[in-house]
Amino acid sequence: MSKLSANRKSESTGIVKSTALPHTYAQVFNDLKIRIRQSQIKAALSVNRHLIELYWHIGKVIVERQHAEGWGKSVVEHLAHDLHREFPDIAGFSPRNIWRMRSLYIAYTEEIQKLPQPVAELDGEKLPQPVAEIPWGHNALLLEKLSSPVERIWYARKTIENGWSRNILTLQIESGLFHRQGKAVSNFKKTLPPLQSYLAQQMLKDPYVFNFLTIDQKAHERAVEKELVNHITRFLLELGAGFAFVGKQFHLEVSGQDFYVDLLFYHTRLHCYIVVELKVGDFKPEYAGQINFYLSALDDLVKTAEDNSSIGLVLCATRDKILAEYALRDIKKPIGIAEWKTKLTRSLPAKLKHSLPTIEEIEAELALPETKKRKIDFKREADK
């Protein structure tokens, strides 16, 4: 056999196959590739953590010197100049960034000590772990946009869980995600096991903000549904981590009759189907009965033994909380009810409206491969 015929490149693995190689070689090679890439990510995270801890320490020194010796603006800016001159290859020692380091230290020490009651991960003595694990640009954004240390730590944790870029983090802050998460009316406590109930409740929001839609909130339901699918990337971002789109107008046949679910998703973390029914008007009690029927049919016809019970979500333009609670009181299937909005930004100051990333910017970022997004994020964190 010639050397050319003995060595063939595999399109699936990207390696050169040889008759002399063990049969386990391809698997070993692929396992090593995964391990190396994981190590690269861990190394980047480690570098980032040490950088944030360094910034924290510099901020601490400045605050202590201000208290002990009355350091003013000129001394701090002189320090920034000297650090930049001493370490010209290290970005981040501009006067503006040095003042941010001071703010970082104060935000998680003095501000925390003023809280009326203790908060987990915030002891006022050391840098909270989630803060140390997100890039400096994200931390600067949290310091700029939020005054509450509790909210900052919450968004830092969500950034880690979901891999948000700065643009995505900005969008989530401006949409008030902290105040919307887990706020939907539901019957999960009565219909799901405790852990599943908690996770499902945290999955929901109220209201959902679809400010990427180009149609009015009073448009026909099918038109809204079509727009949501057309912007599926942004739609999934608003729904949250774990949602996988299955289809629209999903067909169910029961007793020879045809029924169609507006939007069907599968939640990879809850391991269940999610039925979403979209309504353009006020919530009506009969909507709970309709989605309860869909869930029963879906569990019988589509759900497998490995799947958990399907969950329903009714999205209405408006909903009366008491009416929604009564509608769910005796329903046996897990259902959530929430509002959806298209123009939440109307309530924001003009300055904040203009700071929001555009639809095109968000969708472009979400289209990037995960490893490339991480590289870009870490590369951007040097002070400008």
Shape: globular
Helical proportion, percent range: 40-55%
Estimate the mean pLDDT confidence: 82
* N- and C-termini, Cα separation: 60 Å
Classify the fold: give the CATH topology of the domain at 180-347: Trna Endonuclease, Chain: A, domain 1
- Low-confidence segments, ≥5 residues, pLDDT <50? 1-13, 345-353, 370-380
Strand/helix succession: HEEHHHHHHHHHEHHEHHEEEHEHEHHH
Q: What is the count of β-strands?
A: 9
The rounded Rg comes to 26 Å
The secondary-structure class comes to alpha/beta
How would you characterize the largest beta sheet?
A: 7 strands, mixed
Q: In DSSP terms, counting alpha (H) and pi (I) runs of 4 or more, how many helices? A: 19
The CATH class of the domain at 180-347, by name, is Alpha Beta
Strand content: 5-15%
CATH architecture of the domain at 180-347: 3-Layer(aba) Sandwich
